[in-house]
């Protein structure tokens, strides 16, 4: 079984968001489980190889907008499990992202490379990811290639609306072929919608999100299209790449965490030691941030993008504003919307011993925060999967999260975390107070929750097995 995994980002070469984490981890596990997999992505100007060797393997030409465009193919082996990675280079469309043309051209170049066998890798399945590869399923049909397509939606909000001229640029005749009659009537082309319509199978990054996006509330205009694919839409919960988070930071993590995913009994036997190290980490962070070094003051963190549309900044801000901050400590790490950064900075300015804000992307500090905090608050309005709740639990930090999307699938309420039902500051505050009250007055139950968080299995191995099951059904002709 050969799978070509098509993405727009792949660390360590180029990374912008969470899709990069998936593109690095999932293929690595799939190849370990016997899948012959390769990754393909654009060769932007910003791509960096460092000490990784790359090799130029081919130059070919791809017709786009009636012109022959030169495309160079480079190949490198990924440092994680040595899976092959192909990079497509073109100075017009792939050096930097051009909204209208980069993704359609990238998709066309992939198809031409496969048709010409320029990759020396002929896939049985192309695993498409998000809007950036949304035209691939249609192009596969147009070229009548014997290839199945699977589209994974990582975030339905990113849809990629472009001019319908893109179809003619791709050489697709709108009056015949695979374009549906009603698609011809639309004024714009929605790249993600095209992927959903024409993919053989659609997946999302959690089971709950797969159900949510079929409703008008969460469907962002595509719910009807998705309902039409019912029976071919599946939710597979993302995992986390465990090995990335097992490195010691100045000896702050206890040794048994290194193998805890495989040996939960070892965690139980060493829980008191772990809790003592967690307490030490908390004091170190409190000292570093200028907070009072007291264990009975709850230390709560928020780590994430300052995205006003998704991440729940409004209800988090209102809740913090309503608290007697002298009895609480908050660490806010993230960047994005500058207006919201300014609002949270106000807390930092007037309560410097209780609220710390850092408006940067700082992975090292994020890990230090996960290791040291009592709670992490995740008030997202919607959350396709979420990664930070898994990382937090990995380090024994209890999540307080909105009852939505992948947060529902990864957090068991009152077992390894807390979920609040309504998207309001009042609902968030009620559950937050419940959580800190439990920690202060029922440490036995709280420690049991930490144990449950530490032993939760969020490895990619589980997710990879579910993808393989879908791949096999695609290859067998079931879909």
UniProtKB/TrEMBL annotation:
EC primary class: transferase
Keyword tags: Glycogen biosynthesis, Glycosyltransferase, Transferase
A GO BP annotation: glycogen biosynthetic process
Residues annotated as binding ADP-alpha-D-glucose: 15
Pathway: Glycan biosynthesis; glycogen biosynthesis
Positions of the Glycosyl transferase family domain: 293-447
Catalytic activity: [(1->4)-alpha-D-glucosyl](n) + ADP-alpha-D-glucose = [(1->4)-alpha-D-glucosyl](n+1) + ADP + H(+)
GO molecular function: alpha-1,4-glucan glucosyltransferase (ADP-glucose donor) activity; alpha-1,4-glucan glucosyltransferase (UDP-glucose donor) activity
Domain Starch synthase catalytic stretches: 2-227
Family assignment from sequence similarity: Belongs to the glycosyltransferase 1 family. Bacterial/plant glycogen synthase subfamily.
Name of the featured protein: Glycogen synthase
Gene: glgA
